[in-house]
Design goal:
Layout (H helix, E strand, L loop, with lengths): L1 H14 L2 H22 L5 E6 L5 H9 L4 E5 L1 H9 L5 E5 L3 H6 L7 E4 L7 H22 L14 H28 L1 H13 L2 H6 L5 H31 L7 H25 L3 H19 L10 H4 L6 H11 L5 H15 L8
Parallel strand pairs: 1-2, 1-3
Antiparallel strand pairs: 3-4
Helix pairs in contact: 1-10, 2-7, 2-10, 6-7, 7-11, 7-14, 8-11, 8-12, 10-11, 11-14, 11-15, 12-14, 14-15
Amino acid sequence: MGKLIIIKSNLKRIVSNKIFIVMTFLIPLIITLALGFMDKGVGETNILINSDKGELNLEYIKELNKSNNIKIYDKEDALKKVNKKISSQCYEIPDNFSELILRGEKPKIMVHRLESGFTTGTFEFNSNKLINKMILSNELKNSGVKVSLEELSEDNLEIVLTGRENGKSTDRTILSVLISFIFFSSIGVATQLFMMNKENILERSFSTANRPSTIIGAILIALFTLYSVAFSSVFVIQAAVRGSSTLENWPLYVINIVAMVFVALSLGIFVARICKNESMITVIIQVIAWITCFVGGSFAPYEFLPSAVRLFSKFTPQYWAIESLTTGNIYLAGIVILFGVVLFTAGTFKVRRFE
C-alpha cells in the first residue's frame, strides 16, 4: 500500500512539471501530425528509363502515370541518382518492350536498385497489371475486337493502392521520428533522477519507514508509466487524426513503444549512475542517441545507409523496433526489451549511491 502511495505522489510531481508535458507529449504530437499532413496525398516519384525502340512505350507511360508519379530520365542520370542514394531505385523499359507486346509476350520492366533496397510495391503491381491489359488489348485487336485500356480497367483500383502505399511510407517516417523522441527522452529520465539526488529528495525519502528499494522502485514505475502513456497517446492521437491504418494493429505499435520506453528509462538510469554532473548526462545521452538513431534507421531509412554502417544496425534497439513495426512481427519487440534488460541491469542503483 505504501508503494502505491509513493507511486501516486511521484506521478503528481512529474505531471505538474510543464516541461515534461511539453517535451514528451506536445512537441512529439505536433511534429508527427505536421509530418503526416505534409505527406498526405503526396506520392513518391518513380524514376523511369525509356529504352524502348517501338511506340507502345508512350501509351504505357501515359496510362501508368495516372496511378503513379513518374519522371523520365536518361539511363546515365537515373543510375547516378541511385548510386548517390538520391533515389532507392529506378525502373527501365526494355528496348524490345513494344515488340514483345505485339507478339503477345510479356516484357519485363527492369529494376536498378541499391543493394538490399526496398521495392515500391504499388508501381510494380500497377505496371504488371497494365502490361497484361496491353497484351490483352492487342490480342483482341488482332481478333477484330477493338477495346481500349480504359475499358479494361477495374474501378480505379490502382489509385486506391497508391494511396495505401503512400500511407505506409508516411507511417514509417512518423514512427521512426517517434522512436527517436522516445530514445532522447532518456535525457529527461536521467536528469530527473540526478536532480532528485542533488536536491536530497531521495535522502529525505530514505528517512521514512519505507525501504530505499521501495522508494526507488516506485519512482521508476512512475516514470515508466508516464512516458509510456505519453508516447502511446501521441501515436494513437496522430494516427486517429490522420486516419492511419496503423490503428487496426495498435497493440503491435503500443507494445513496441512501451518496449522503447523501457530501453530509454534503463539508459537514463545507467547514465545517471555513472555521471557526476548534469551537463555530462546530456552530452553522453545525446552522443549515444544520435549514433544509435542514425545506425538503427530511425533518422533515415535503413536501406539508404552505407553497407559498412548497416553491419552495426542490428546492435541497436531502434533497428529491431522499426523492423517489428514494418514486418508486423510482434516477437521482435522482445529483442528491444532485451536491450532494456541489459541496460537496466547495468544501471540499477545501489542504495548507498544516494546515502
